[in-house]
């Protein structure tokens, strides 16, 4: 079962494309923890491919979807994207408006289903907390929650599994502090990466890999 993780720096986390299958190919984020969990269960069954690129927005995912997803013929595609669509607008007026974000996201799903009809797709909710990178302009960063709502609606309309994260991060950070989970309000620290992986694995095992989870 080939699983492609598609997204921005939260997925990327400095992984190596040149050493696929090695420890360096997963990066230091949630993909690493997902790979560790699944490969420890069955090395022969799973192949996890990290296709995150730091700084990506939804338009960047669409631009490279053929090379980084369709050409790989994955059995499962997992997508996490959204924070940069807001962040780039704040920093350089080069973000992606929410309506355009939704339109392109829907196009990615539709075209992927046409190209790879047997591929299962998981959507991960984008998230943000008030941290060192977001606090000064948090009144604008909070728009990420609007984009998260778009992803949830897309998942519902296409009947796709949805990994909910924002409310869970809000709750966890209220107890232990934002930096314990997202070191700058956006990027996961060790606990945050494990948190994302655990939530992803719950959805994967209950909605995608059901037979294996029942063994």
Folded structure, characterized:
50% of the residues lie in helices and 11% in strands. The chain has 11 helices and 5 strands, in the order βααβααβααβααβααα. The longest helix is centred in the C-terminal third of the chain and has 19 residues, at 190-208. The two termini are 16 Å apart. The model has no long low-confidence stretch (mean pLDDT 95).
Main features:
5-stranded parallel beta sheet, 11% strand, single chain, 215 residues, alpha/beta
Radius of gyration: 16 Å
Helix percent band: 40-55%
Number of helices: 11
Proportion of residues in extended strands: 5-15%
Extract low-pLDDT stretches. Answer: none
**Can you tell me the overall shape?**
globular
Spell out the blueprint of helices and strands.
Elements: E1 2-7, H1 9-12, H2 30-41, E2 47-52, H3 58-63, H4 65-68, E3 76-80, H5 83-92, H6 98-115, E4 120-124, H7 138-141, H8 144-158, E5 162-163, H9 166-176, H10 190-208, H11 210-213
Parallel strand pairs: 1-2, 1-3, 3-4, 4-5
In short:
This protein has helices spanning 9-12, 30-41, 58-63, 65-68, 83-92, 98-115, 138-141, 144-158, 166-176, 190-208, 210-213, and strands at 2-7, 47-52, 76-80, 120-124, 162-163. With 215 residues, it is of the alpha/beta class. Helix 2 packs across helix 10 (190-208) and helix 6 (98-115) runs parallel beside helix 8 (144-158).
């Amino acid at each position: 079962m080939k699983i492609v993780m598609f997204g921005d720096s939260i997925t990327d986390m400095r992984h190596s494309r040149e050493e696929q299958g090695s420890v360096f190919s997963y990066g230091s984020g949630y993909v690493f923890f997902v790979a560790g969990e699944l490969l420890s269960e069955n090395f022969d069954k799973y192949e996890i491919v990290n296709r995150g690129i730091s700084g990506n927005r939804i338009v960047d995912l669409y631009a490279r979807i053929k090379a980084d997803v369709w050409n790989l013929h994955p059995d499962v595609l997992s997508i996490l994207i959204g924070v940069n669509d807001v962040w780039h607008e704040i920093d350089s007026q080069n973000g992606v408006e929410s309506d355009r974000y939704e339109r392109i996201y829907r196009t990615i799903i539709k075209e992927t289903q046409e190209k790879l009809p047997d591929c299962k797709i998981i959507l991960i909710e984008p998230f943000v907390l008030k941290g060192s990178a977001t606090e000064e302009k948090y009144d604008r960063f909070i728009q990420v929650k609007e984009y998260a709502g778009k992803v949830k609606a897309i998942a519902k309309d296409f009947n796709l599994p949805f990994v909910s994260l924002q409310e869970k991060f809000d709750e966890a950070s209220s107890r232990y502090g934002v930096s314990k989970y997202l070191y700058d309000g956006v990027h996961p620290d060790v606990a945050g990466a494990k948190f994302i992986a655990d939530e992803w694995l719950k959805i994967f095992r209950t909605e995608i890999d059901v037979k294996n989870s029942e063994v």
